[in-house]
Amino acid sequence: MNNNQYQLDKVIILSRHGIRTPLENTIALLEQSSPLKWPSWDHAYGYLTTRGGVLEAFFGHYLSQWLEQKNINIEPQNPDIYVYANSLQRTVATAQFLVNGAFAGYDIPIHHKYTIEKMDPIFDPSVQDDSTELKQAVLRDIEEADKTVSIFKNLAPAYQMVSDILDYPHSQLYARYRCDFADIPYELYFKKNEEPELHGPLAIGICAVDAFLLQYYSAFPKDQIAWGKITRLEQWQQILQIRNHYIDLVFHCKTIAQHISKLLINKIDDLLHHQSHKVNLLVGHDSTIAALLGALDFAPYQLPNQCENTPIGGMVIFQRYSHISSGDYFFRAEYVYQSFEQLYTGQPIDIHNPPQHYQLKLENAYINSDGYYNWADFAKRLKDN
């Protein structure tokens, strides 16, 4: 790759928040799904944890080194960086720790629209139009995506594994449904000003898997991670299919992705074409990243050394380059994230112990022999959405 001909000109970093506690609205469902006692947490539900903050500071330190390697130097007196986060504790705190890790002592404001714990429309995956037509279009997308996945991947073993870990047959949920975990009925919950949900085994499964994953990333004692019942990487790979599939169906499918990404795409377009900051950091959620990649027609991907498609603390870095000899602009996007192992061990990451980098591909776009897309092609995607 002839990188020395390309100078990084501008970046938009879209990060998912770091390690948090389970979400409050899932606690009741978790308690009903198993007769076993869930471990307690020492932070409020849905908040970035202390460990999460430390890992974000490490990530910030790495980012500053990466930018320096790319010849983007941030001056302490007038830092050329813009930071905007969703107005929740976990996203604002993630932005703070990232910035402190990267540029401690620099005067960099963390912008957010509301008081803490009010959702910003730019990052809000809620449905703004619950018309029958849109719901039908979303259902068609889900059915098509589900069918395609089912050809390659059977979720039955993952459902059975989660059922066994939870001891679901002895739970309140089993008493209500009186059927196997996999046979709990599916239903799309699609209501204006609320997040779309796909009720059924996927929704219950993602809540449970998310809780187990947060225990793992928080380095709980092994006998407390899923009550000591997950002991091998293959088990994680199996059950995380549920999480990835849920995110794909509910947020990544084209109709809903375009519906919930409009304001974010406007923001990104504005930052790229009308604002002067070289470095722009936006902090949102897994739904934010999944929907944006779906709306902009990025190709399906599998991240090496990670079981999640939208890993916690991971970030998509949109990069604009100028070609030194021609003056033309080019585009590339990378998913930069910590591996499954890096998140568990919590080791500092830096340029010598870097996070994972994975280049994302665009569907239906020409990529040159150096691995770059024409900038105009990407800019047109932003405009078309």
Number of helices: 12
The amount of helix comes to: 40-55%
| Structural class by sheet pairing and helices | alpha+beta
Q: Count of DSSP E strands?
A: 9
- Describe the largest sheet: 7 strands, mixed
Rounded radius of gyration (Å)? 21 Å
Amino- and carboxy-terminal Cα gap: 31 Å
Give the uncertain stretches in residue-range form: none
H/E series, N to C? EHHEHHHHEEHHHEHEEHEEH
**Global outline:** globular
Please report which band the strand proportion falls in: under 5%, 5-15%, 15-25%, 25-35%, 35-45% or over 45%: 5-15%
Q: Report mean pLDDT, rounded to a whole number.
A: 94
Write the layout of secondary structure elements.
Blueprint: E1 6-16, H1 24-33, H2 50-69, E2 81-85, H3 89-103, H4 132-152, H5 156-166, H6 172-177, E3 187-189, E4 197-199, H7 201-217, H8 233-252, H9 254-273, E5 279-284, H10 286-295, E6 315-323, E7 329-337, H11 340-345, E8 356-360, E9 373-374, H12 375-384
Parallel strand pairs: 1-5, 2-5
Antiparallel strand pairs: 1-6, 3-4, 6-7, 7-8, 7-9
